[in-house]
Amino acid sequence: MVSPATPPDPHAPFALAQQAAERLAALTGVERHDIALVLGSGWSGAADLVGETVADVPAEQVPGFRAPAVAGHGGSIRSIRIGDDGEPRHVLVLGSRTHYYESRDVRAVAHGVRTAAAAGVRQLVLTNGCGGLDPALLPGTPVLIADHINLTGASPIEGATFVDLTDLYSARLRDLAREVDPTLTEGVYVQFPGPHYETPAEVRMAALLGGTLVGMSTALEAIAARHVGLEILGLSLVTNQAAGISADPLSHEEVIEAGRAAGPRISRLLAQIVRRI
After folding, report:
1. Which of 9, 85, 142, 187 is most exposed, with minimal Cβ within 10 Å?
2. Residue 226 belongs to a domain with what CATH number?
3. What is residue 240's predicted lDDT score, i.e. its pLDDT?
């Protein structure tokens, strides 16, 4: 007779996040962080503009993190100080992001934001590179995420835990971002599981559902972040027009190049926003 498998411990991910937060405190010398940034394609330059880097830690030195598997993504975790010496704030920059398509492991996807919460963070900024469904959203356009549609078929929440997502992406933080740049528009981000790009039919479906942006990250992280009480700002960089919107075939090289071209401008934008939070 085969013994039934032991069910996974729903508390284990949070214990690992606490270990990671304690390790980060030891490696950075910063006991508590206030804001966290997850930097997607095109956004990495913001880390150099936000403030003074206190420590830059290789991700694999922190429990639960690993070196990035995707070209164009950073591989370290930074602690950055902003503000004067009298009352500085500390920003945790998570350059190492785990995508759902890497292993279909939602615990790994959520680990970064759970670690941020364990480190004391209250506001989280999630960024990504994405495909645009509106032909007016040209590559290089930053867009505020007002809502999302999760098409991965997964959730980072385990067990009978019911989390309200009505106002998942903070209206307060979106208003603050528009104080920095009044031209910022809003959109609905649709997360597909990846790693393949969407078909033209899937892009049309996403548009019919109300989506304006498509990508392979962010939604699962945002759900996990709300679960642990974080206030969330989402920012997408349109790196390409989605399949069927443009006649050109899609490529990861195109995504990287669009991010590189827009990088200086959107990095300045993000740094200004973060300093106002």
Report:
1. 85
2. 3.40.50.1580
3. 87
Query: Which range of residues forms the domain containing residue 141?
Result: 12-276
pLDDT at 73: 52
Quote the DSSP letter at residue 6. Answer: P
Q: Is 254 a residue of the active site?
A: no
Looking at the 3D structure of the chain, how many domains does it have? 1
**Does residue 1 form part of some domain?**
no
Regions in the chain scoring below 70 on pLDDT: 1-6, 68-74, 85, 250
Report yes or no on 3 lying in a domain.
no
- Looking at 22, 31, 52, 198, which residue is catalytic? 198
The answer to the question of residue 116 being in a domain is yes
Contacts (Cβ under 8 Å, ≥6 apart) of 217: 40, 97, 99, 100, 126, 128, 191
68 vs 112: CA distance, rounded Å: 13
pTM: 0.93
